[in-house]
Specification:
The chain is of the alpha+beta class and 307 residues long. The chain has one helix at 2-49, and strands at residues 54-64, 74-75, 80-86, 102-108, 114-121, 126-131, 135-141, 147-154, 162-164, 169-171, 174-178, 185-196, 211-213, 219-225, 231-237, 243-250, 254-271, 277-295, 298-301, 304-306. The protein is elongated, with a radius of gyration of 40 Å.
Length: 307
């Protein structure tokens, strides 16, 4: 009876010792396990951090004909540009799994239509998917200053992917046309403008010997009624070569334009009562209003002389 009690007591003691051993072993092993996991995490992070991150830049300008008949296209403000990269492109060491996460960068065009988009780049090239809107709605200023909502559509293609290396600067512009009704046509008026500034050569002399081209930026005023019978007006500047050009859209088969000159002042040579030549200082030159009828999709060349 005594032996059985002693035997049972010994088994219990052995069981207790085993439990204590395993507890002690786990306590000793825990720091090692945590260190191992930390090393594994560090190794994963080092795939991207073993090389210092850099950047690359895409710049460009967005343009459209926001103001009609001023001879140029304007930069468009407030257009959002988006660039996307696959973060797998940032990993430089180890086996890179297919796919990855998408990282997005944004930029907005300034008052001149310019934008700058900066993306992260590691030591190897990164592919950037650039998103520039295919179209946008905005106010367009007509010749008479009236504004109307207009649909603008991009007329150039954007590459599917732009590959960039660290510190590289790439340029990607975009230009837009505006929506034109298929019923619309155009009429065009152009020519040269002179002023008769040397009358001393006599009335009988050839007109060409009495005239010269007007000073640069001399103004012509063109008025007409649009397709809704609303009056329209625009000033057209004459170039340094004396030439001008004006074009207007119309649905009508014919458009009547009225053109006149803004008065300007310059010297004029003319004979006095004794037929001697004198110079009139700051003589006021004028060009009275004249009508021109032009058929849709046709052009007229008209030269004018300020007197």
């Amino acid at each position: 009876m005594v032996l059985i009690i002693i035997f049972c007591t010994c088994n219990q003691i052995q069981h207790i010792m085993k439990k204590q051993f395993f507890k002690s072993a786990m306590v000793l092993a825990l720091p090692f396990l945590l260190f191992t996991q930390s090393c594994k995490k560090d190794n994963e992070e080092n795939k991207t951090s073993n090389v210092v991150m850099g950047s690359a830049t895409i710049t460009g300008r967005i343009t459209a004909d926001m103001i009609l008949n001023n001879g140029t296209k304007e930069g468009v403000a407030g257009i959002k540009i988006t660039g996307r990269i696959n973060t797998a492109d940032l990993i430089t060491t180890g086996n890179v799994a297919a796919g990855g996460l998408t990282r997005t960068y944004e930029a907005t065009t300034d008052a001149n239509g310019n934008y700058t988009l900066t993306v992260e780049v590691n030591s190897k090239p990164v592919g950037v998917t650039l998103d520039i809107p295919a179209s946008f709605n905005a106010e367009q200023t007509l010749e008479n200053g009236v504004k109307k909502q207009t649909l603008f559509t991009r007329n150039n293609a954007i590459p599917a992917t732009i590959n960039l290396t660290r510190s590289q600067v790439a340029t990607q512009n975009a230009d837009y046309d505006y929506e034109v009704s298929p019923l619309l046509g155009t009429v065009k008026l152009s020519g040269e403008v002179f002023f008769r500034n040397d009358l001393c050569k006599g009335v009988s002399a050839a007109l060409d010997s009495q005239i010269n081209i007007v000073p640069a930026n001399t103004l012509l005023v063109v008025t007409w009624n649009d397709d809704n019978a609303d009056p329209r007006e625009i000033e057209v500047s004459v170039g340094a070569n004396g030439k001008y050009e004006f074009m207007v859209e119309t649905k009508n088969a014919n458009k009547v334009l009225t053109i006149k000159g803004r008065k300007f002042y310059a010297d004029r040579k003319s004979p006095n009562i004794n037929d001697s030549c004198i110079t009139e200082k700051n003589y006021g030159y004028t060009l009275p209003a004249q009508n021109v009828s032009i058929n849709k999709n046709e052009s007229e060349v008209r030269n004018y002389t300020f007197q």
